[in-house]
Design brief:
Layout: E1 13-17, H1 27-38, E2 45-51, H2 54-65, E3 73-76, E4 87-94, H3 96-105, H4 110-125, H5 133-149
Parallel strand pairs: 1-2, 2-4
Antiparallel strand pairs: 3-4
Helix pairs in contact: 1-4, 3-4, 4-5
């Protein structure tokens, strides 16, 4: 996937739609969420977002994580790029079908769950992880703080 240079906030995120059903936030909205999450790291940054169906999500999840089921969001860090150009933070692959199902199951709005998973994926691109308890707490605190700035309640207390 490729992304475009971040000369204006709306160019921070490049959105590629492969799934057409249901509500999906637009590129400007994703860029606002990304800017809030990244802060000064958003300057000269690029993020690519690919929306896929459940079959493609399952295939990618199996190939890269060894898990044979569709997932909500996958984060892919870029290979090292030559200096001098825009800084590619990475790619997010989001499955709106899984996201919608989770939102219903967790009694959340789709928009709030979109924000949460988008922020979660971006934090992975910044090096956050949740493999160990201390890392998970650090990542969760950052998610909650960012989502609060976006007007979304703590997602870990809402279900």
């Amino acid at each position: 996937m490729t992304a475009m240079a971040s000369e204006s906030p709306s160019e921070l995120v490049r959105l590629t739609r492969r799934e057409r059903s249901g509500w999906v936030p637009g590129q400007r909205e994703l860029a606002r969420w990304a800017s809030t999450t990244l802060g000064t790291r958003a300057r000269d940054a690029q993020i690519s977002v690919l929306l896929v169906g459940a079959a493609r999500s399952r295939s990618l999840n199996h190939r890269y994580r060894g898990r044979d089921y569709p997932t909500n969001v996958l984060s892919f860090s870029p290979p090292a790029l030559p200096a001098g150009g825009p800084r590619l933070l990475g790619d997010l692959v989001i499955c709106p079908q899984v996201l919608r199902r989770e939102a219903r199951q967790q009694h959340k709005t789709e928009r709030a769950h979109w924000m949460h998973l988008f922020v979660h994926g971006l934090l992975h691109l910044l090096g956050y992880d949740h493999q160990r308890a201390a890392e998970a707490r650090r990542m969760e605190r950052r998610e909650v703080r960012t989502l609060r700035r976006l007007g979304v309640a703590n997602p870990y207390r809402s279900h």
